[in-house]
Amino acid sequence: MRATGALFFSLLCHVAADRSAQVNISRMLGQQAERVMVLGEWEERWEQGRIGFHQPTVHKMLEMNLDKVLNGRTGVRFFFPLCGKAVDMKWLADRGHSVVGVEISEKGIRQFFEENNMTFSEEPVPEIPGAKVFKNPEKNISLYQCDLFQFSSSIAGLFGAIWDRGSLVAINPKDREKYAALIVSLMDKDCRYLLDTFLYNPDQYQGPPFFVPGEQVKSLFGSSCNVELLQSVDALTDRQRDWGLDSFTENIHLVTLKNSSAAN
């Protein structure tokens, strides 16, 4: 009986701890829940050159986890939400893959092609009034200049891989469920979605990038996808210290559709 009582007490402690953690996560998410950045603010950042989020080299987390994303496949079709001018796009195209990106800033898209010494064509997107698509001559890189939430699979099809570096963490927190639904709708049955998120104390910094805990990643994608945490690393640098942070963790998740070969 004593053993049973001790086990029951231990279970109660675990339940209490879990509830306490959930309450704390909810409180932390609440710190940024009403934070809103309109599209014009992002375009303004590009015009003013305030793009500290841009990395001039291939993202090390993509390099380290590329084999897990490819899963033995060649010629994979990659989607880059909020792509900016990420050099990762050319890096993948040079390796025989194709890339489709979406970015609100036309300046960012033009800079991508110009800085990589690539010529490009430009044409309207009939399905999205005012939108444009920019393509290199080989047509293995297509970048759509539009609101991400106006993009859909009817415009560019489904994708075998998605690299989300700085997208989920950049969109307004209130739009995360809509964002997750869009991403899932773009995933082909064998799609492998590499997702980069950050953990920090939102009492110290309002974002973006925003605080996205693993529990929310599972809440957003868990009903239709398997979510695996691949890496969790200390990513604190002077840049984050300048934001007022004393800790900053980078998490890399692999998200695959349930009941798909990509989950194996």
Task: Please explain how this structure is put together.
This protein has 264 residues and is of the alpha/beta class. It has one domain: Vaccinia Virus protein VP39 (Rossmann fold, 3-Layer(aba) Sandwich). The protein is 35% helix and 24% strand. A 9-stranded mixed sheet has the order 3-4-5-2-1-6-7-9-8, sandwiched between helices. The longest helix is centred in the N-terminal third of the chain and has 29 residues. It catalyses: S-adenosyl-L-methionine + a thiopurine = S-adenosyl-L-homocysteine + a thiopurine S-methylether. It is an enzyme of class 2 (transferase). One of its GO terms (molecular function) is thiopurine S-methyltransferase activity. Keywords: Cytoplasm, Methyltransferase, S-adenosyl-L-methionine, Signal, Transferase.
Q: Rounded to an integer, what's the Rg over CA atoms?
A: 20 Å
Order of helices and strands: HHHEHEHEEEHEHEHEHE
Strand order of the largest sheet: 3-4-5-2-1-6-7-9-8
How confident overall, as mean pLDDT?
A: 90
Fraction of residues in H or I helices: 25-40%
Structure class: alpha/beta
Work out the count of structural domains: 1
The end-to-end span amounts to: 44 Å
Biggest sheet overview: 9 strands, mixed
Indicate the CATH architecture. Answer: 3-Layer(aba) Sandwich
What percent strand? Answer: 15-25%
The number of distinct β-strands equals 9
Indicate the overall shape: globular
CATH class: Alpha Beta
Unreliable runs: 7-17
User: What is the CATH homology-level superfamily?
Assistant: Vaccinia Virus protein VP39
- SS field, number of helical segments: 9
If you consult CATH, what is the topology?
Rossmann fold
